[in-house]
Amino acid sequence: MQAPKFHHETLLSHSGREPKKLGGTVNTPVYRASTLLFPTVEALQAVHGTLNTYGRHGNPTTRALEAALCELEGAFGAMLTPSGLSALTCALLAMLKPGDHLLMTDSVYDPTRAFCEGTLKRLGIETTYYDPKIGGGIRELMQPNTRVVFVESPGSLTFEVQDIPAISAVAHEYGAVVMLDNTWGTPIHFPSFKHGVDISIHAATKYIVGHSDVLMGVIMTSRALYPQVRGFYKQLGLSISADDAYLALRGLRTLSARLERHQRNAHQVAAWLAAQPEVEQVLYPALPGSPGYDIWRRDFTGACGLFAIQLQAMPASAVSAMLDGMQLFGMGYSWGGYESLILLTDPASCRTATSWHSKGPLIRIHVGLEHPDDLIADLHAGLERLRETVDV
Ligand SMILES: *Cc1c(COP(=O)(O)O)cnc(C)c1O
């Protein structure tokens, strides 16, 4: 984990590229290969046990992506998986065994929770959910068999920002590993390893790929944990295609430029929404006055385009009137592409350690790269449809 020599913008342009070795091509080509051939027995034996024996263990395209991601986040090693969720489940299984205890933020991405309640429970691994705002108070929940403390910041749907340095300090005191879902933070806006994280996981599907056309996950680890996680990943036989790796590398090159625009647009849209009478609260940690703003400012170097708004209590038909007629905001799961999205969510159904008190609906918004005035006009028209339904 050496300190990066260059700024993120520069690394994004230059990491994971070796034109001199590749006939001068700017981009690492797509290496489609399952079989690798060796000219001699000696050559075959020389690679035994390394990642250079067989296509499943990677190729120059996947390795270029791994190298670039490691440099950006300051990780020792990276492993690419077929989805963000598979990265999360692989990392958890790599670190936990029957009898272990897992501390899990209550604001975790719901499919991660489903894995804890399903597979981990079946394997005899116990999960305790904690209030995402617990900070150093996590000490009260540490058990002698607590092996992993899992954080996700900001939390899925509700955007609580966690005090990761405080949580990491306690976890390490007890010999536990800190695992983070860093999808919102991205490899460039939350320097996870500097803040005490041991394993950082991303749904690369979101901003890294950035164009809504590839599912991918990445697990990044410290030097100490790399052999264990890589070994387990290898045993599972996880592998991604070189074509997908190429698209992710292509998306990665513009990550900083895209995020700058996503964040600027999101600020403008969020501030406008905060002033609308139907909006009870905006949950965008990068917006002054939003919950979590102080910790976000302290620990993050930027934000993205994803946030939520809590509306006042209103009939379901009013929300439908707003969302059904959107012109620019698409309705769908996922986020992190160049396009704007809007989604009605229900965090109450996926919280157990804390409860989500809101009489009104929660709407998640992904602000894309469109002109913010057009997005605001679309939201304004949506709120007008909503107002007609409520008829206040
Ligand atoms: C989307 C998402 C995932 C899962 O990624 P997939 O590629 O869809 O499997 C994990 N964590 C967070 C926070 C996400 O938003």
From TrEMBL:
The UniProt record lists the keyword rRNA-binding: no
Family matches, as CDD domains: CGS_like (cd00614)
GO terms assigned for molecular function: cysteine-S-conjugate beta-lyase activity
Keywords for the protein's UniProt record, in alphabetical order: Lyase, Pyridoxal phosphate
Reactions mediated catalytically: L,L-cystathionine + H2O = L-homocysteine + pyruvate + NH4(+); an S-substituted L-cysteine + H2O = a thiol + pyruvate + NH4(+)
Known pathway: Amino-acid biosynthesis; L-methionine biosynthesis via de novo pathway; L-homocysteine from L-cystathionine: step 1/1
Highest taxon listed in the record's lineage: Bacteria
Family membership noted in the UniProt record: Belongs to the trans-sulfuration enzymes family.
Protein name: Cystathionine beta-lyase
Obligatory cofactor(s): pyridoxal 5'-phosphate
PROSITE patterns: CYS_MET_METAB_PP (PS00868)
Compositional bias segments (type: Basic and acidic residues): 1-21
Gene3D superfamilies named in the record: Aspartate Aminotransferase, domain 1, Type I PLP-dependent aspartate aminotransferase-like (Major domain)
Region Disordered: start-end pairs: 1-25
Group of enzyme by EC: lyase
InterPro entries in UniProt: Cys/Met-Metab_PyrdxlP-dep_enz (IPR000277), Cys_b_lyase_bac (IPR006233), Cys_met_metab_PP (IPR054542), PyrdxlP-dep_Trfase (IPR015424), PyrdxlP-dep_Trfase_major (IPR015421), PyrdxlP-dep_Trfase_small (IPR015422)
EC identifiers of the protein: 4.4.1.13
Keyword Secreted carried by entry: no
Pfam families in the record: Cys_Met_Meta_PP (PF01053)
